[in-house]
């Protein structure tokens, strides 16, 4: 649970860090987007002003062109009128025979003066027109360059706006993906925590059951050890009795038939006492010498039987519903049985 808690805390810290970083980036992108929009609005105003200035300058160029054409036509009309007047004017002169007047020279001089005036006027008009045209051309070129630069800047700003929109969409997608990943991590953490808690409960139950089984087995082992100790004591006692009886029986020469009859009698008595469910039993062994042996033992739900070939029959019964017997069949065979 500590590991799951630390993982959950680390996920929370990482979630807060990613959320804060994403919010900061998103706010920066919003500020950049707002600044770009403001700059675009300012540039759009400048472009509109430049376009209006261009339109006004174009109108002025058209007006000046019309004015130049009008003045040119006017000068040409005036020149033609003056030439026609000069050609159609009839001069009446009184002839003075005493003077010689050079009329052709006078006319040529006047004509030259008027032509000079017309040429100067034409040259001045053309020079003024050319200077105005060049000035307007330079202004138009300058505004055209400004307009092209403004269009390029507008294109760059539009590209930047599209890029910022794409980055904002990408950041939004990343934020949504991170939120989904955080939700999945939280869900997996909760499921892992629940699974760990279930497994911990199962392990605790298994441990408790194992402790109970171990305690039960220890009790059974202690009972078995107690039974074993009692049986060892009983066996030692019977061994001593058998050794003592061997000496007696060697003197009396007891026949095998009598021993077998005595053993069968004892066995019938033991079986009868077991069938009756008695918690204590007694057996008697009659020997030719008048010696007899009786024994009884009470144990919990266990039985033990032993016999030896020394013509000795002994038996005992156990408490809690079970019995055991010990018998001797021959002088060379020893049989023990334990029933639980």
TrEMBL record:
<dbReference type="InterPro" id="IPR003054">
    <property type="entry name" value="Keratin_II"/>
</dbReference>
<feature type="coiled-coil region">
    <location>
        <begin position="168"/>
        <end position="227"/>
    </location>
</feature>
<dbReference type="GO" id="GO:0002244">
    <property type="term" value="P:hematopoietic progenitor cell differentiation"/>
</dbReference>
<protein>
    <submittedName>
        <fullName>Keratin, type II cytoskeletal 5-like</fullName>
    </submittedName>
</protein>
<dbReference type="InterPro" id="IPR039008">
    <property type="entry name" value="IF_rod_dom"/>
</dbReference>
<dbReference type="GO" id="GO:0030280">
    <property type="term" value="F:structural constituent of skin epidermis"/>
</dbReference>
<feature type="domain" description="IF rod">
    <location>
        <begin position="1"/>
        <end position="249"/>
    </location>
</feature>
<feature type="region of interest" description="Disordered">
    <location>
        <begin position="318"/>
        <end position="340"/>
    </location>
</feature>
<dbReference type="GO" id="GO:0005615">
    <property type="term" value="C:extracellular space"/>
</dbReference>
<dbReference type="GO" id="GO:0045095">
    <property type="term" value="C:keratin filament"/>
</dbReference>
<keyword id="KW-0403">Intermediate filament</keyword>
<dbReference type="GO" id="GO:0031424">
    <property type="term" value="P:keratinization"/>
</dbReference>
<keyword id="KW-0175">Coiled coil</keyword>
<dbReference type="GO" id="GO:0045109">
    <property type="term" value="P:intermediate filament organization"/>
</dbReference>
<comment type="similarity">
    <text>Belongs to the intermediate filament family.</text>
</comment>
<dbReference type="GO" id="GO:0001533">
    <property type="term" value="C:cornified envelope"/>
</dbReference>
<dbReference type="Pfam" id="PF00038">
    <property type="entry name" value="Filament"/>
</dbReference>
<dbReference type="InterPro" id="IPR018039">
    <property type="entry name" value="IF_conserved"/>
</dbReference>
């Amino acid at each position: 649970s500590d590991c799951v808690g630390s993982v959950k805390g680390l996920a929370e810290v990482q979630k807060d860090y990613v959320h804060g970083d994403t919010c900061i980036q998103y706010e920066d992108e919003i500020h950049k987007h707002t600044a770009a929009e403001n700059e675009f609005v300012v540039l759009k105003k400048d472009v509109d002003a430049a376009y209006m200035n261009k339109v006004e300058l174009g109108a002025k160029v058209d007006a000046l062109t019309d004015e130049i054409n009008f003045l040119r036509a006017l000068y040409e009309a005036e020149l033609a009128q003056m030439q026609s007047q000069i050609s159609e004017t009839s001069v009446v002169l009184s002839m003075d025979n005493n003077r010689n007047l050079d009329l052709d020279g006078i006319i040529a001089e006047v004509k030259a003066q008027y032509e000079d005036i017309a040429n100067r006027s034409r040259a001045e008009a053309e020079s003024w027109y050319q200077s105005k045209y060049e000035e307007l051309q330079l202004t138009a070129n300058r505004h055209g360059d400004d307009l092209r630069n403004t269009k390029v800047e507008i294109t760059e700003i539009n590209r930047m706006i599209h890029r910022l929109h794409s980055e904002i969409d990408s950041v939004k997608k990343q934020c949504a993906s991170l939120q989904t990943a955080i939700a999945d991590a939280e869900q997996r953490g909760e499921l892992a925590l629940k699974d760990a808690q279930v497994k911990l409960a199962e392990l605790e139950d298994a441990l408790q059951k194992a402790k109970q089984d171990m305690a039960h087995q220890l009790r059974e082992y202690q009972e078995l050890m107690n039974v074993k100790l009692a049986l060892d004591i009983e066996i030692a006692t019977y061994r001593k009795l058998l050794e003592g009886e061997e000496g007696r029986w060697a003197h009396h020469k007891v026949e095998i038939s009598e021993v077998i009859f005595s053993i069968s009698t004892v066995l019938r008595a033991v079986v009868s006492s077991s069938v009756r469910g008695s918690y204590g039993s007694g057996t008697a062994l009659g020997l030719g010498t008048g010696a007899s042996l009786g024994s009884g033992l009470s144990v919990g739900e266990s039985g033990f039987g032993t016999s030896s070939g020394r013509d000795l029959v002994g038996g005992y019964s156990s408490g809690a519903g079970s019995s055991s017997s010990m018998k001797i069949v021959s002088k060379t065979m020893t049989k023990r049985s334990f029933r639980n």
